[in-house]
Each structure stands twice: as C-alpha cells, then as structure tokens.
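Example with several molecule types.
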Amino acid sequence: MSARLGRLAVIGVGLIGGSLARALRATGWVDEIIGCGRGRANLEQAVELGVIDRYTHDIAEAACTADLVFLAVPLGAMRAAFEALNEALPAAALITDGGSAKGSVVADCRAAAPGLLDRFVPGHPIAGKERNGVGASSAGLYEGRRVILTPLAENDPNAVEQVRSMWQSCGASVTEMSVEHHDEVLAATSHLPHMLAFGLVDTLARMKENDEIFLYAAGGFRDFTRIASSNPVMWRDICLANRDALSPMLAAFAEEMNALAHSIGEADGVELLAIFERAKAARDRYVEGLNRP
Amino acid sequence: MSARLGRLAVIGVGLIGGSLARALRATGWVDEIIGCGRGRANLEQAVELGVIDRYTHDIAEAACTADLVFLAVPLGAMRAAFEALNEALPAAALITDGGSAKGSVVADCRAAAPGLLDRFVPGHPIAGKERNGVGASSAGLYEGRRVILTPLAENDPNAVEQVRSMWQSCGASVTEMSVEHHDEVLAATSHLPHMLAFGLVDTLARMKENDEIFLYAAGGFRDFTRIASSNPVMWRDICLANRDALSPMLAAFAEEMNALAHSIGEADGVELLAIFERAKAARDRYVEGLNRP
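Resulting structure tokens for the full complex:
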C-alpha cells in the first residue's frame, strides 16, 4: 500500500491540521487539499499561505470527494464531525485524527458512525506549541517527532498502513499502542503537567499580592509555566475527553505532594534528598535520550 | 556612601558567588577577590578563569582581611560560616549573602554571630541556572535581574546602602522587603514550582513503564521539568530552610489539585475552562511584563 493520495480533506486548519497539510504538500503526497473550519479569516489565510487549495465550512462537502480525511478539530467537536462523515464519506476513503486523547474519539466514532470503524485509524502526533491557528503551522512540525497510532480491532490493515505511511512521509516516527495505554501515557506526560502549570499560575494569580509575586519569578518559572499559556478550550476538552485516566492520576499526584509537604514540614532531609536525586537522574536521562542521534 | 571596596571574600565560588566576583571585577568595584571553598579543582579553575585572585579553604582566613564577605554557600552551611566569621571578621567589614531563603540565614547569624547583625545585610539575587560551579558563572548573570534585600532592624543603614550599591553596580534592580515576606514570595514563585517539577519527574520515574513514558514526552515536558535537573542538595537545604512557608503552601496546592481532579472526574467543563482561562491570562500578563522595556 502506502501509495500517495489524490485529495486530502483537513477538518480544522490550525497548528496540527495546517502542519500536516504543509508537510504532505511539500512531499507531493497529495494533489489537492481542501480545508474545512468555522472561521473564515483563518481559512482565507490558509489559502493565501498555500496550505490549502480551497475551503468550505461544511464537513460533508469537504469530505465527499476526499481520499483521506484528517480530523484536527477540538475533542469536543469530534462527534459532530463523525456524524457529518457518516453520510458523506466516499466508500474507499480513510479517516484519521490528531486528537490528544483517543478513547473519547473512538467512542465518538462508534456512536456516530459505527460503519466507518474499519476505515478510521486513530492517531496522535506528539507535537504542539502554545500558539494556535494556521499561522503557527509549519511543514517541519512533525520532522523527527513521534506519532502514536492506536489501531482498532475493526481496522482494515491496509488503512493502518496507509496512515502510517502518511506520517512517515512527514518525517515522523510512528508507533502503535492500544487506545487505553495511549490515554494513560499521555495523561502522565502531557495532561498532568498541563494541570500543574495551569493550577500553579491560577493559584498564584489568586493570591493577595499577585502582581508583586509575579515580579519576583525567575527564569525557571517562565519555562515551567509556558504550557499554562495553551488554549483553555482545547485543554478543557482534553480533560473531559481523558478524564478516566487523568482524574485519578492527578488525585494520586496530589497525595504525593501532600506527602512531600509533610516531609518538608518534618524536616526529613534524607527523604527530600532521595526524591530530588531520583528526579534529577531521571530528568537527566530523559534529556540524554532526546539528544541521542 | 556606595564607595567601591578594596577586598572581597567570596565564600562559595559557584554560579552565584563566581558571577558576583566576575561582575564586580568587570566594573572595577573591587581590587582583590579571595575565594573560599572546599573543592580544590573548582577553586583552581576560578583562579585560571580570573574570577578570583587567590583562594583558601578556611573561611576565617578568607575573611580576616576582607572589606566585604559574600556568603554563597548552601543554606545548610551558613551557620558554620557565621561561626567562622564571628571571630575573624575585621571591625569595619560587611557581610551579605545570596541564599534563596532568608529567615534561616538570619537565624543562623543570630545564633552563631549575634554581634555581626548590624553588619550582615541579607540578600537574594533572583537569578540561577540548573548548572553549578564556577564554570557556569558569568559577569552578566545579574544584569537586569532583581535582587531582594531584607534589611534587619539591627542593620547599620550605611551597610544596607553599600550592599545595595554593590548589586546596582552589577546591573541589578534592588528592592527591599521583610524577611518573612521574602520567604513567602519565594516559596510561591520558586520553591513550590521546583517541588512540582521534582515531584512530577519522580512520580513518572517510579511508574512501571517509565522508560516508555518518557519516550512520549513532548517539548512542553522538557521545559516544564527543566528545573528538576537542579542540584538536589541545594534544594534539600532550601526546603529545610524555608519549610515554615513552603510546607503549608505545598499542602494547600495539593488540595487545589485534589479539587481539580474532582472537577475533571465530574466533567465540570465550566469550572475547568474558568481555571484555564484565568491561568492563561495571568501567564500572558506575566510574560508581557517581562518583555516590557
């Protein structure tokens, strides 16, 4: 398989959808790209930038002549998208998505378009920025990044292979895991850190002298809280979509922080040093891994 | 006042002490700089780099001919330093420090060298990196950064003015606040974020499939956890020194995270969006403030 495709429909032409469009156009993997979204200004910018060839606000219209549909809408908009695709998708066309949680998207497909399950290959490119919109997209966003596919029992193996090949052509490294495992892993590495960053900034902002407090935040604070500048609606949707994995993990982390507060209060230097040394070693190993060629 | 000084003794020639030495030498504020520390290799490197003129391993020897002593040792080593200074400090010489918590350092001075309280002006430059040692130091580290002084009731006003002038000559912006307020502010903006970063990385590292989990951490995770690569001994000392402010603040934050876990579990999208929007607005304002000329 892994042939190139004729026509790509990108539903949601923002950072994620726009970057896939740019990358597939750059490699010549598609002939034509149709964008679909709600905001006219963003879609017109996408045409001007050459990211898409034309656009519509109607998902069914975008999909009805497509060979591949890429769903890059917020998680809260996935079900409505599947409802539109259920009627409109051509018989041979494939669907994949870029959602940050997979269980909810699969549930949406199963509820709204069960007949499409053989051709919907759930995916998640591990890439992102705090900026949104097609203006932030780039052809190189997925270069050297990981993409996780979570193939379904119903999936046609050729569909999985086609989607894998698409991401590889963007320079991404593709791996597969189960939907449930994906949602656990991402809760730990992405969703939990975002909750801590949002929570910390919100806590500080609600303190009495919050203006003064932010004055004395050093460089480490800026890095630590960068992800708190992410899109609030997107993150509300991610929390709701992945609540089964995220809520208990966040509660367990709160317990860890309570225990740490206790160790600090008790001046337990041995325990504190053990935690900080384990963390530093793990973090240094992680960075070494990133830098390995 | 604000005259330049003849001889500076830097106790602890690492990032913080080494950078002050470099900056004061660059501005010609001091004639001679004596370094003091335990590790010979680091001190010899400091001489080779021109950061200090000579060194000793003995605090009393370093201080006994100094006009100004800068204490840049870990917080856990402050009391012993004051004990050494109590005997050795010349009558007209001043002391200041760079410790990240101020209450414990003042308590150490009060316990070990109460006769020096008029001439010890506690200070804290809000600057740091994850790297340590004189090799990481630079003359420009304090350029445009904030330095907090927490003058004591016992302080000679001329001593405070002299220390203020020293930091201003390094390009820093100097403000004053009480010891207690400093420790609250720093618990919020620096110590708490470090606890979250250390805690998060440690929690992930103790998960069953921790190697796999770190594989899927995206760019945001790298920024978010950068401060978890900081020196574990230094951070143990900071936690112990500032435990009165930090322990309750961390426990309160754990409660916030429990409440957030509950909101996520209950799928309370309204509450989640409100938190994330407040946090994003506060974080964006903070960055705007940093970028303001």
